[in-house]
Amino acid sequence: MFTKRLLSLNLAAVAALAVLSAVSLSVGVADFQWRKLLEFSDDLQLMWVSRLPRTLAVVLTGASMAVAGMIMQILMRNRFVEPSMVGASQSAALGLLLMALFVPSAALMVKMSVSALAALAGMLVFMALIRRLPPSAQLMVPLVGIIFGGIIESATLFLAYENDMLQMLSVWQQGDFSGVLLGRYELLWLTGILALAAYLIADQLTILGLGETVSVNLGLNYRTVLWAGLVIVALITSLVVVTVGNIPFIGLVVPNIISRLMGDRLRQSLPAVALTGAALVLLCDIAGRLIVYPFEIPVSTVFGVLGTVLFLWLLLRKPAHAV
Amino acid sequence: MPSENRSEWLGGGAKPLWAAFALLVVCCVLFLTLNVRGDWQFVLTLRLTKLAALLLAAYAVSVSTVLFQTLTNNPILTPSILGFDSLYIFLQTLMVFALGGIGYTALPPLGKFGFEVLMMLGGSLLLFYTLMKQGGRDLTRMILIGVVFGIFFRSISALLQRMIDPEEFIAAQANMFASFNTLNTDLVGIGLAVAALSAVALARERHRLDVLLLGRSQAVNLGIAYSRLSLRLLLWVAVLVAVSTAVVGPVSFFGLLTAALANYFSPTVRHAVRLPTAFCIGGILLIGGQTLFEHLLGMQGVLSAVVEFAGGFVFLYLIFRKKR
């Protein structure tokens, strides 16, 4: 029964993603017709250089951010956290800004790594901070997280303002796929690999979610798995921030919806989380392209509305038995 | 601003208030006179307008925050944390979106502001009662819902702003993005009148406000018309939030910072002392800060970032202190 439901859910998500991808490939300002693809015309060029990379970038971002949010929620044992609510996204942007200030000539990979380290540091500081909260204060964690992220953000904003880098900063803070072209998004494939890595250690993460005592009892190397999870989240976050910019709330709402439908066994639910995340972000990206056609609205703006509505719904509904 | 010269108003120990007031006057004088080069008359006129706007903002933000904390009986809640500022920005954006930028700027300022305040009242009441109904007992849930509502209003404003024709948007932009540097001085006149009205009204309410601090049941026992009084207070809060957001734009933690400092320094919880103290502290922060950054350090846009930063820390401190 359960596997049947699982299968149908995943199939539905795959179908939605396929339809949305087809729409995404055919929507844009330039003229494009599917049948001309076979004639080796400009349309093929357009598809190969702009449309396909953009669609792939959206899918990779949506999927990996949703997975990162799910891991975060399992690690912190709290349903209301995601990378931008534990200071990770904001710290990643701060790391990038510091690199741009002090070592502007560094290679992209070096900047990336520093940004990932900053995201990791941000998360660790946050975790140290909330350790002082009683475990019953579930909703305190996201609240403190939002304020914590805001503090880091205002420090970053101050630095950027003083050094005339506000524009650069807004590129990282506002997720947007309009600049994605062939050769400018390939880093995102790494997020796909990281999401797969998370799938490989899915069972260990699930056990970790039962708490430290239980997982040590079951013979799990608690620390190693915890660090592995944190590193995956930090890397995914910083990769997304550096290539397309931050898109808050994906990692919050998608795992919540999937968990309610199919529980927290990651080995089963991670694929659905990834597919749903990709489909939702793709939907918002297409909407952003169509609302004020021929102009574009950044995906973070569109998703901000959808994500906060879903989040409010999660908060306002009757508390579930296991929140 | 209730000018206090009748000592029986104040009860004992209003020394910190006078100290704060003196410091505020010093800040104002410095703000007006530092680094004046060239034509004194021109510079003074310009700076006086700015000073009036900043004082107005300090008054509106600090008084609305203290009132709100009295109303909710909670030293952590502020209107802006619960999304009132973002609501105002959203209502403004909605008006520009509906009327077009040109139509929007053509409206008479007084009528426009009156209409905005009315909308704000309705919106605030709705928001407040939603929050109270949802999380009246669960404070954290209520704050979180408020914060997310704030983010939601900001997101939807951003979305609407993208949908407004760019040419028209520019016309409305000046009104929509105020900050400590780019003050919206057209509204200072109206704002000052509103502030004066609120000061008179609140001065008459001051004893009732003190009674409210005892909690709802005590206040009702002592003969306070609780619902009517809360409604009146919420009305003033909404009006003052509208004034401050219109003049300086949204401020997330400035109110929390002034209220927390006022609660710390004020020797008594009585509103006759606490409200003016909060106002003076708010004025010192804004005008002193602006003097420091603008005239001495030559860094213009820093004040709001610094206030945000400090306010965020104060918020976290209050939360963690409460939990222990």
Automatic annotation (TrEMBL), chain A:
Asked if the keyword Cell division belongs to this entry, the reply reads: no
Task: Tell me the keywords, alphabetical order.
Answer: Cell membrane, Membrane, Transmembrane, Transmembrane helix, Transport
Bilayer topology = Multi-pass membrane protein
Q: Where are the transmembrane segments?
A: 54-75, 96-127, 139-161, 182-202, 225-258, 270-291, 297-316
**Subcellular localization, as worded in the UniProt entry:** Cell membrane
**Sorted alphabetically, which InterPro entries does this protein's record hold?**
ABC_BtuC-like, ABC_transptr_permease_BtuC
Organism superkingdom: Bacteria
Does the keyword Membrane belong to this entry?
yes
Similarity comment: family membership = Belongs to the binding-protein-dependent transport system permease family. FecCD subfamily.
Q: Which protein is depicted?
A: Iron chelate uptake ABC transporter family permease subunit
What is the organism field in this record?
Neisseria lisongii
Automatic annotation (TrEMBL), chain B:
The record's section on Pfam families has: FecCD
Q: Which residues cross the membrane?
A: 17-36, 48-67, 87-106, 113-131, 143-160, 181-203, 233-261, 273-293, 299-320
- What is the recorded membrane topology of this protein? Multi-pass membrane protein
Has keyword Transmembrane? yes
Keywords, A to Z, come to:
Cell membrane, Membrane, Transmembrane, Transmembrane helix, Transport
Where is this chain's protein located in or outside the cell? Cell membrane
Task: Tell me which InterPro entries the record gives.
Answer: ABC_BtuC-like, ABC_transptr_permease_BtuC
Question: Could you say which protein family the record assigns here?
Answer: Belongs to the binding-protein-dependent transport system permease family. FecCD subfamily.
Q: What is this protein called?
A: Iron chelate uptake ABC transporter family permease subunit
Supply the source organism's classification: Bacteria, Pseudomonadati, Pseudomonadota, Betaproteobacteria, Neisseriales
